[in-house]
Specification:
By secondary structure, this protein is mainly α. The chain has three helices and two strands; from the N terminus they run αββαα. The termini are far apart.
């Protein structure tokens, strides 16, 4: 195996702590000197910070699949994993319910 489940869980905890944002996964650690979370696709320099901090929603599904895959089995651990996944997805649901942008969708 490339790594064991305990190592995977430790990595996922770091990813959650450092890269998981309110709706998506950041493309760079906020502590990095080049971190810039604001992406403006209308900017003439569009794309200059595409991978330097903006959050993207689509990797969240991959992250949550890994959380479930490497979760410890049995009773309380299963419940804790379910709560962890639900907490992340609830942010998406809350955002959609507020419909702040008028598009009834999650931001790119």
């Amino acid at each position: 195996a490339l790594f064991d489940a305990a190592e995977a869980r430790a990595c996922l905890d770091i990813v959650e702590r450092e890269l998981l944002g309110p709706l998506g996964m950041r493309t760079l650690d906020p502590k990095d000197w080049a971190f810039n979370p604001n992406y403006d696709s209308g900017d003439a320099n569009s794309g200059h910070n595409y991978h330097q901090g903006p959050e993207w929603v689509w990797p969240v599904g991959c992250f949550l699949r890994a959380v479930v895959h490497f979760a410890p089995g049995g009773g309380d651990a299963v419940d804790a994993t379910a709560r962890r996944v639900h907490a992340v997805l609830r942010r998406h649901s809350d955002y959609l319910e507020r419909n702040e942008d008028g598009w009834f969708g999650l931001p790119e």
